[in-house]
Fold:
Amino acid sequence: MKKIIDLIAEELAEAFEKAGYDKAYAKVTLSNRPDLCEYQCNGAMAGAKSYRKAPIMIAEDVVALLKDSRCLSEVSTVKPGFINMKLKEEYVAEYLNQMEASEDLGLEKTKNPEMIIVDYGGPNVAKPLHVGHLRSAIIGESVKRISRKMGHKVLGDIHLGDWGYQMGLIITELKERKPELPYFDDAFEGECPSEAPFTIGELEEIYPTASAKAKEDEAYRENALHATYLLQNGHKGYTAIWNHIMNVSVSDLKKNYANLNVDFDLWKGESDAQAYIPDMIERLKQDGYAHVDQGALVIDVQEETDTKEIPPCMIQKSDGASLYGTTDLATLVQREEDFHPDRVIYVVDKRQELHFVQVFRAAKKTGIVSEKTNLKFLGFGTMNGKDGKPFKTREGGVMRLENLIAEINEEMYRKIDENRTVEEAEAKETARIVGMAAIKYGDLSNQASKDYVFDVDRFTSFEGNTGPYILYTIVRIKSILNKYQAAGHSLEGLPVAGAQSESEKALMLEAVKYNEVMENAFEELAPHKICAYIYDLANAFNRFYHETKILAEEDETKQKSYIALLKVTKEVLESCIDVLGFEAPERM
Ligand code: ARG
Structure:
């Protein structure tokens, strides 16, 4: 379906042309004076110069031709040359009926579907997930869903940090604790055990212990570095341990991400890129892109127009080891081979921006990806505590993701339990669903690049701009629709009729924006635009609800129209929260 704003613009364009003006001036925007009108056009002011005419005269010429408009009920001019418009009640109603009858509420999907990879999550295997990884998962999941909704072919890739020093640390600590294991016996020829020599719980304790020891003890650190080196060069026993670490961690990660309603198509990691590195480096050397600088192999990425220094992208250290940037470049080689993406979106902490500037420039300069490939860094800010500092536990440690979720769910349960009418088990499950919305909406309603304060009290509130408020609104609509059905009516095929009141029209005008909001959120990769929209929509609904008898309405046609309007409103809200990555319970 065409966006309603485009339909209005089309009519205006006809009028501009008929009146002898360029239709390019017929741009329509939402009104910034909602007290006066619903939509407006400022084109007369823009055209005044080229036509050497007062803008108000142009506006009047155009308006004179809109007397029998298909979609406008009121068109007027306001000095110096605004064209103010209101939509016909029936036109808006008909638009809603068409939304209801169309697939995906009439969303106008992209005409040029792209192959998009979203690189998000990025947890480091064997280190516990912490809140820093929460933002990446929440924002990335939403960006993936929005892109998919717009008709693109999208793959989400977790890009595990599974090839670093942490692996050497774990191997070293394990060797100290259980030197008798066959992995450490170079003469061992048999099959290594299929059972991992640790549980996830032990693994989570081993890593911090080893990490602390390495900071104190130089020899221990050397051992860990050497173990990392051996692993990266194919040591048999260490590779077997690495596989155990991967199996144990990945199944735990899968559980954690499933709890967040986050789901990856690809479970690739840094380790998967390693096989591509030798050939890539060889080629970069041969083609003269990489040169040796103080013993290290680097690619220059400084550009003439830069106002500050952009250091070269380092791809090999003097000891032959590869780096973070090498892995990201090799991952692009791999992605190019497997999927040939049009766009790769990296959802990563904004403090890593320079790294990505270097990688993107190096990838384009060396032809790893084509000049056309859209490499996009979507950097996010820090999640802070109420004290304005990075979020910590009460004891001052890094908050683990699981604990954070548990804390929100508890608070949610406490609030739901205050006037609980359902069984405890159902209330617990509802708290979990609403808790997820509280966390995700609390994050996504902020522009991603900004820091924000994680405020449990505010996020779990049923009032204000929060996830629970949005869900509460959906549940309220569901309950009315259920009661209507329980009274023996069907929800199918009910037509929305022209609005009877100001609040009803206001609700309709919000609902019809769905199409353009979704498109705009994709274009700007901005889930917060969807949050802002559903907050307005929920407010419009609640105002209508408080001013209108719905179930008690005696005029059947009127009531049917109300119910139909509620149904579309609910569907729009549900579609929006779905791309934000959460859902609504049946009741709460
Ligand atoms: N594992 C990294 C970290 O924790 C994030 C990975 C981001 N993605 C990437 N392609 N570099 O900082």
